[in-house]
Amino acid sequence: RYTSWTDEPDSEHVDAFTMRSWAQSRCPGCKLYHRETMLIFPPRGLERAVVRRAKSDGVKACFIVPTSHKSGYWKLLRSAAIARLAFNDTKRAFASSQAPLAAHSVFLVDFGTAGGTVPCCGQEGRRRGRQPRPAHRGQGAARYTSWTDEPDSEHVDAFTMRSWAQSRCPGCKLYHRETMLIFPPRGLERAVVRRAKSDGVKACFIVPTSHKSGYWKLLRSAAIARLAFNDTKRAFASSQAPLAAHSVFLVDFGTAGGTVPCCGQEGRRRGRQPRPAHRGQGAARYTSWTD
Q: Quick one: which of 25, 225, 252, 246 has its CA closest to 117?
């Protein structure tokens, strides 16, 4: 059983960040939730995001990561490590790359317990087949951007949008400033808040309460108002995990230049927006983040 970064036919999920929970899954035998024990080898450059999501979900796992004593993910893994093994193999290469394996470390880590699970029944290792991605609840006529390819969303992957702060009105054909509700995927809070600050976004953010994190400091510095809540009785609509300690920030990171006051039609749906095109493709060779 495995989750892949690309669309492989035998994988249970495509893109682990879209999974409801990394810590537990529903057994196809007894139909109850068991805790998972995982092997995690993050793609290069995503080590920090992967480790933060694993810590958020309370994962029990074996991590294989580049040896980097000064990085953030290293400190998180070391603080929760049960055991660690370092190796430096310059004679071998990755199966899918010519790059040498080089210095890596193996961590055995337990970030906590997954609430609501029961002891394993012996059938938890059976394959689940391709699992559907979490659906957004209460879409209705609302305008929204999704992390996955949903037919009613205006964009797929907000990071491919030209601007978060403004959009072209389908009525008056001019640009109005957006007021957004932003609930970042787990592990991507810092990246989302930094992009919002860069674009000068006006928004309501819902984020995990984490006073020492970088995104918390950015939000607090520009906050108009803040409300904290800790609701352990409710769960996310797309997950079995409790909502727990989160905070709501009303934030204005600045003004969006080139916009005009709202005309009353700015709330109309735009339909699926095309992703920004790469410039100067021609015969040039290039690598893209999207397909």
A: 25
Q: Give 290's Cβ-side CA count (13 Å radius).
A: 15
pTM over 0.85: no
Higher pLDDT, 287 or 283: 287
Tokens of 56: 């958020």
pLDDT digits (tens, 9 = 90+) for 52-90: 888 888 889 999 998 888 888 898 899 888 998 888 766
> Residue 260: what residue type?
V
